[in-house]
Amino acid sequence: MPRITAEEVRVVAHLARLSLTDEEVRLFTQQLDTILDYVQQLQRLKTESVSPTTHVLPLANVLRPDQITPSLDPETVAALAPQRKGRFIQVPKIIETEPG
Amino acid sequence: MSRPLWALTAHELADALRQGQVRPREAVEAVLERWQSTNTLLHAYLGVNAEAVRARAERLASQAPQGKLFGVPVAIKDNICVRAEETTCASRILRGFRPPYHATVVERLEAEGAIILGRLNMDEFAFGSSTESSAHGVTRNPWDATRIPGGSSGGSAAAVAADSAFAALGSDTGGSIRQPAAMCGVVGLKPTYGRVSRYGLIAFASSLDQIGPLAKDVTDAALLLEVIAGYDPRDSTSAEVPVPPYRERLTQGLQGLRIGIPRECFVDGLDPEVRRAVEEAIKVLRQLGAACEPTSLPHAEYAVATYYILATAEASSNLARFDGVQYGWRNAAPRGSLLEMYQRTRAEGFGAEAKRRIMLGTYVLSHGYYDAYYARALKVRTLIKQDFDRAFERFDCLVTPTAPTPAFRFGEKLEDPLSMYLSDIYTISVNLAGIPGISVPCGFSKTGLPIGLQVLAAPFQEERLLRAAYAYEQATAWHTRQPEVAETTPSR
Amino acid sequence: MNYETTIGLEVHVQLATRSKAFCGCANNFGAAPNAQTCPVCLGLPGSLPVLNQAAFELAVRTALALNCQITDRIQFDRKHYFYPDLPKAFQISQYDQPLSHDGHLDIPVQEQTKRVRIHRAHLEEDAGKLLHEAGDGASLVDFNRAGVPLLEIVSEPDLASPDEAFTYLTRLKLILQYLEVSSCDMEKGTLRCDANLSVRRQGEAALGSKVEIKNLNSFRHVRAALRYEQERQVAALQSGQRIAQETRLWDAALERTRPMRSKEEASDYRYFREPDLVPFSVSPETIGRVREGLPELPESRKARLMRDDRLSSYDADLVTSSRRLADLYEATVALHRQPKAVANYLISELLAYAHVRSLEIEAVAVEPAHLAQLLQLIEAGAISRPVAKNVFVEMIESRVPPGEIVTRKGLGQISDGAALEGIIAQVIAANAQTVADVRAGKASAFQFLIGQCMKATQGKANPQRVAEQLRQSLSQQTGGS
After folding, report:
1. Chain B, 176-195: which have a CB under 8 Å from a chain A CB?
2. Cα separation of B473 and B254, whole Å?
3. Chain B within 8 Å of A34 (Cβ-Cβ)?
4. Mutation for testing the A interface, residue in C140, C148, C270, C277 having most A CBs under 10 Å
5. Most buried among B118, B269, C17, C169, using CB within 10 Å?
């Protein structure tokens, strides 16, 4: 049984905001299936009593003082953008007011 | 001087500049000339701002020599931000992006008098082991132009090997400095996680990435590390550990050094020529006074699987920001919706390997799969790290091959992502554990392809691995061999 | 059939730091578009966050004031979604190891105290702001707000009515103001609130379907939206419909909620540990020190004023309804030991002053020394109450001590018999008909004459003395005829 279906690949592509061609969906379904099959080897290990490592260094409490440092020139910021209007960054008209 | 200027090592050049035997402008012209005559074939560089380079050399010439790298041109991988210079990670999606700021390592290089020479080719977003996934075309191996230079810092390794850079910076997330260094016959050092600031390095996998040098010899690697290492308040994960004078400590010799040889590294898939070269190298280390003994890293075999879950998960997150809103490439189809803009921009902006990794990373973090993949991989990471902790209780250094094979041919592994991933089998666990590692040349295949020896040490023990690598380098002549690069005149 | 309502609130508070949560850009409102941005808060590739110490400390302070437990190992996580105001396409937030958890806030409900449990309070970063041009225009992004530190305070679903929700918010805001951690200005968005509400038949064990309500721009809107939603859900249940679990937006103009356009997929935020930030912890010693350093909060201050100053519950409530008002009250009482008089004057005059001008109490500048002096002038009979009202206003607006205003303008009260006699004589002479009415026993006519005397002195006459002397004059005249 495949580990991932074309339908799941499409859902993931939507989450990642990638539009895929049918050919890409087919290819990724097959390639991701191979990779997911390979990583199944991790299921062999007993990990119940192992704690996860998210940071390799034992650093903690790294803070910066609450001081204002210079911002960028707003002209520089707007100039980076593919589309701008004045010093705003322009995007296609949004109809909905909530993250999707 | 009988050798051409461009053939000098960085420390030789630095000495000559400091003593006034060479002027910064001469150094720059020599390396620009070499770049022009080799880049058409090798395509190590994506861009060189010759005008800015010459201007900087002129400014330096008007000053008294100051700094460890005064007047030395250093080239930079295309994922390290240089103010106002196009920085693209070899991706279409960052086309035209000129960061309004310098990476910390660039500031540090300039503070020591270095001249930032140009941007080096790489796998797109450092996703790859062959530099074939660059959106700007492949880089060729100076030892054999039909082969890949390794990756992802393939441009860095090729430029240093071909003498079109005195030294270069790369980045290493799973072997991206060490593996191309091995395949191009140069020295490549991945520092301890937290040793070098990541501020200004365009992130691939934030918990694994480190910037490090690719250099003509171990002394140069030590010199560059001295300059770029150290605490940076702009990087929360940078460690406040003092930076020793690495160069001064190179010559301590190997007497009494305890070296472990992980037996897991000498199994299936290891090319016999690589195996023989590494075994010969171990003999040399013994002769130099090191005590070499077998050891074990029992979870090493799980490193690749663990890595491809963790690294792609982080990459899918780090690359989410490339959405066409603020900078870089945007598909601005008239009257397109926001969703269409996102989807088309990202579909057009990313290459196949980037898409594949974004897909895999998104999948392993998504609802219902997180525990089975991501959470489990974090735990296996602990097991892999503990293997190293235990090994370093007994040994000062570990020695392994850097890569299982010498450089392969273009296209050989493109169709099979998993076989490409397996070419990092010896380097990946080092990033998972956060420890430092270096690759030094240790021989050649019968067909004349370089082979690399990897030396590892405990966190913040770069001094030890440099010392071992230096002693080995001084006892052998591999690093003095030069590739014969066919020079071409670029068409204008 | 009776129904029970269950409400939970999520409050986002912008913390009043000088700089943003993870970079050194200024944290203030109203700068030109994108003028307060840098590589970090813009999420430019290669930039890295470093947590602001003040943001962390203000968050800990607030969590402790809300009786929360501080988590042993505090961690940050990435919450992913694509939206143009979110520069990195993920928000730095907290998921399974939030800054704090399991607190509570006591609120008054029908003369009783009700304990509302607080699920968690965690730190995160704000997003930028979107402007939508009219018609076919584009949407525009301003990232000045991106990266401003937010504390998200999530209540348990312990609130049983829209009124309780309103009281909870009012109390929470008051505590935040006492702590001086935020300006708590809903208009400027430094305090924001999302609500969720469900309805079930009385006695049913399971909660009803939860409906989230967004776009609530004031506490009044929160209450109105919850009332609307409560009625809508009860009506739906009564007519046999099922309640869909969904997110609805409050339309303040139409005074109703409406469903948000359904999303294309259920959100999947793919939380994972933020690798660019390290873990944080707060030692028990620090927790003890912060707790001791907390200011007196409104509940205990009210109790103290009732006990020590013998204020009524009503007066003490009003005086402590803002930290600024309570501070002013105490500073004034320290100079003029008449608590009741000070409280009355603040409640009647200062609150009225602010109300008429639609000002927050915080925006009205009153010197305790000036207020004390004004009350002393009144009590000594040196100025009349009507004059005092005007002096009060002038004193606030000019910052001149009231004594000086009275002297300069000659506003001293006229209590002198001889001076009043002449004025009274004139008023009697000019109002023969009214005088006749007084004599016929019309009480209102007498008040009218007093008013005329006050008017003739621009309010400076001592009204009691005027009444006495007027009564005398009228009776003399009667006796004389």
Report:
1. 193-194
2. 12
3. yes
4. C140
5. B118
Angle at Cα B6 formed by Cα B3 and Cα B7, nearest 5°? 50
Q: How many C-beta neighbours within 10 Å does residue B381 have?
A: 29
Q: Minimal Cα distance from B320: which residue of A?
A: A16
- Rounded to 10 deg, the angle between the C417-430 and C432-439 helix axes is 100
Instruction: Specify if A19 maps to a domain.
Output: yes
Cβ proximity of B167 and B10 under 8 Å: yes
Residues 337-376 of B with CB under 8 A from A: 337-344, 346-347, 350, 355-356, 358-360, 362-363, 366, 372-373, 375-376
Q: pTM for this structure?
A: 0.91
Q: Where are the alpha helices (DSSP H) in C272-322?
A: 284-293, 298-308, 313-319
Domain boundaries, chain C: 3-286, 296-409, 417-480
Looking at chain B, which residue has its C-alpha nearest residue A65?
Answer: B233
Give the closest-approach CA distance of A49 to chain C in angstroms: 19
Residues paired with residue C11 on neighbouring β-strands, in sequence order: C153, C193
CB pairs under 8 A between A and C: 143
Cα separation, C52 vs C126, in Å, equals 14
Write down the pLDDT at residue C479. Answer: 44
Burial environment of residue B283 by CB neighbours within 10 A (0 to 12, 13 to 18, 19 or more): exposed
B203: which 2 tokens? 């992130």
Q: Read off the pLDDT of each residue in B167-171 and give the average, rounded to a whole number.
A: 98
Which residue in the set C42, C88, C278 is minimally distant from B236, CB to CB? Answer: C278
For A69, name the nearest residue in chain C, comparing CA atoms only: C24
Q: Which H, E and C letters describe B147-167, residue by residue?
A: ECCCCCCHHHHHHHHCCCCCE
Give me the pLDDT at residue B490, please: 58
Q: Show which subunits contact C, needing at least 3 CB pairs below 8 angstroms.
A: A, B
Burial letters C120-146, b for 16+ CB under 10 A, else e: bbbbbbbbbbbeeeeeeebbbbbbbbb
B88 in Cβ contact with C45 (< 8 Å):
no
Please report how many Cα atoms fall inside a 13 Å half-sphere around the Cα of residue C169, on the Cβ side.
Answer: 29
Please give the structure tokens belonging to residue C69. 């437990």
The predicted-structure confidence for C148-161, as pLDDT tens digits, reads as follows 999 999 999 999 99
| Interval B281-301: pLDDT, tens | 999 999 999 999 999 999 999
Going by C-alpha positions, the residue among B470, B441, B443, B468 that lies closest to residue B455 is B468
Low-confidence ranges of chain C (pLDDT < 50): 264-265, 479-481
Residues of B taking part in catalysis: 77, 152, 176
The domain spanning residue A28 has which CATH number?
1.10.20.60
What b/e string do you get for B457-489 counting C-beta neighbours within 10 Å, with b at 16 or more?
bbbbbbbbbbbbbbbbbbebebbeeebebeeee
Look at the domain C417-480 and name its fold.
Arc Repressor Mutant, subunit A (1.10.10)
* Tokens standing for residue C41: 């808060």
Q: Which residue of A has its CA nearest to C280?
A: A61
Please tell me which of the candidates A74, A87, A93 has its beta carbon nearest to residue C137. Answer: A93
C38 vs A61: CB contact, 8 Å cut-off? no
Q: How far apart are CA C444 and CA C437, in angstroms?
A: 9
Q: How far is B187 from chain A (nearest CA, A)?
A: 25
CA distance B190 to B215: 12
A53 in any annotated domain? no
Question: Going edge to edge, which strands form the sheet with C139-142?
Answer: A84-85, A88-91, C139-142, C129-132
Domains defined along chain B, listed by start: 5-263+391-480 (3.90.1300.10)
Q: Do B434 and A45 count as a contact with CB atoms less than 8 A apart?
A: no
Q: What is the pLDDT of residue C69?
A: 98
Owning domain of residue A20 = 6-44
What is the nearest CA distance from C389 to chain A, expressed in angstroms?
Answer: 44
- Percentage helix, strand, coil for chain C under 3-state DSSP, each rounded to 5: 40, 20, 40
